[in-house]
Design brief:
540 residues; seven-stranded mixed β-sheet; 18 helices; 31% helix; binds 5'-O-[(R)-(benzoyloxy)(hydroxy)phosphoryl]adenosine
Amino acid sequence: MTGAAQPRTAPLDGVVEFPAEFAERYRTAGYWRGETLGALLRSTTARRPDATALHTTSGPMTYAELDRRADRFAAGLLELGLHPGDRAVVHLPSTPEFVVALFGMLRAGVVPVLCLPAHRQTEVIHLAELSGAAAYLIQDLDGGFDFRELAATVRERVPSVRHVVVVGDPGPFTAFDSVDADPRELPEVDPSSVAVLLVSGGTTGVPKLIPRTHDDYAYNTRTSAQISALTEDDVYLAALPAAHNFPLCCPGILGTVAVGGSVALLTDPSPESAFAAIERHGVTVTALVPALTRLWCAATEWEDVDLSTLRLLQVGGARLAEADAVQVRPALGAALQQVFGMAEGLLNYTRLDDADELVTTTQGRPLSDADEVRVVDADGNDVAPGEEGELLTRGPYTIRGYYRAAEHNTRSFTPDGFYRSGDLVRRLPSGHLVVTGRIKDVINRAGENVSAEEVEEHLALHPAVRQAAVVGLADDALGEKICAAVVVDGQTPSLPELRGFLQTKGLAAFKLPDAVHRVATLPLTAVGKIDRKALRALIG
Ligand code: OOB
C-alpha cells in the first residue's frame, strides 16, 4: 500500500540530523539500508503470512492479520484527520493493540511518543506539550488507574491534543476499534525521517525525547537480532513494558517481527504469570532488569513449571551483580546475555560465544564495528586502557541530539557529536565494558531511571519543605533506593505524607522516595550545586 505518488513526509523541526558525511558513510557501509520499520512487517508477512506474529488472549494472530490490522489502523488514523509527521503520545500497556497501533502509526508516518505505563500526569503533559502531540492513545483502565480521567486533563491542558483514542471502554473519547478504515494509499515514509520518539530516563527535571530514525532503528533491530541469534523459530516474551527500547528493539518485538518469529506480551512480569506464559507459548528468549532476574531465579525454587524452552535471558537496564549473573543458568536453564544499552542509542551485548567469565562480569561490547566509544576523564581526555572514565559514544544508531532541546544538547553532546552518557565504565582489552557507576544524577530504581532533580522539584512544592535533595543509595532489592533529604520549617512531614503529596502532583509511583531524612542544611559544592556525594555520606 505504499504509494510512490504520495508526497514524502516532511522532516520534523527540532531534530539534530546526522552530518552528511556520516550519513553517507553509514549508507555506503550498508548499516542504513533505506528501509522503514513499517516495511519490516511487510516483508515478513510476504514470507510467512500464516505464521504466528502475536500470541493474544484470544489465540494466535498471524502475520497476515497483524499486517492487515496495521494497514487498517493507519488508514483509520488518516481518516480521523491525523497527518504524516504528526506526533501521538502512546500510553499503552504491553498488549496486541500496542503492536497494531505502533505499526499502524509507522505506516501512516505518525510519530509515536512512547510513554511508559507508569508515567502519570506530570510526564504525559510535558511530553504532549514538548512534542506538540495531536493525539493521545490510552487503555481505559490499567492497574486500577483510569487513564480517561488523565486524558481529560491532558486535553484541557495541551490544546494540540485533538484526539484521544481508547482501548476498551472509550467513555467520551474515540474507541480504538473505530480507528479502522479500508486500506488506502499510504504516504511514502522517508527512511531517514524520525520513526519513534523514545522517552529518556532524564538527567534534568523532566524527561527528554529521543528521536530515532527508521534507518537507525532498523539497523539497531536487525543487528541485535543477529547477535542474539534470533530466528523464525524463536518466541520472544516482552516481559518489560513494550514501550521501552530494550523489549521493543534489542532485539525485542521489532527484532522478532524482522525475523518472522512470534511475540508474547505480558503486562505482569511476576514469576507466576511469566512462567505460565513461557510454558504456554514455548518462549525461547526474554529480557529483564536485574531486580526481576533475581526474583525469577528465586521463584524457580517453589514454582513447578517447565521452562525448558527458554534458551536466552537478556539482562540489562542496571548493573547485574556477578552473584546474580551466575545464578541464571542453574536456575532458569537459559544462557545469559548482559545488555548495557541506552535509549539514546549505543548497545553493548555479551556475545553468545563469549567465555562464561565475560558474560557474568561484563556488560558486553558494542553492537557495531562503527560504534565509536571513548572513555574519558573529567577534562574530556582519554583515560589509560582499563581505567575508569565516562563513556562517550557516536555511531550509526546513536542520536546527535535530543528533540527540541538545543540548549540541553550543548551539554549532553560534545562539539564533534559524541553523546556524553554519564556512565562510568572500564574497557577491557577485548573491548568489553564494565559499568562502574554514573556521574549523572539519575537514580536507577529497579531498572527505572528516576531523575533526582525532578523529584526534588516536586518535593520543594510541599508547604513544609524549604529545600530538598534526592540521592540514590545502594539497596539489595531495588539496586538503588530513592532517599530524600529535606530542610523543613516546623515538623518534618512523614514519608507516607510526602509520598501522598507527590502522588497528588501526578508523579509516577516508581519515582516516590523510599526514605526521608531531615537535615539542617544541604551540602553544596563550590559553585553552589547540591553536593550529592557529600549528601550520600551524610544520610547513607
Ligand atoms: C536502558 O536504556 P535507558 O535509556 O532506560 O537507560 C540507560 C541507562 C544507561 O545510561 C545506564 O546508566 C543504565 O541505564 N544501564 C545500565 C545497564 N543498562 C543500562 N547500567 C549498568 N548495566 C547495564 N547493563 O536501560 C536499556 C536500553 C537498551 C537495552 C538495555 C537497556
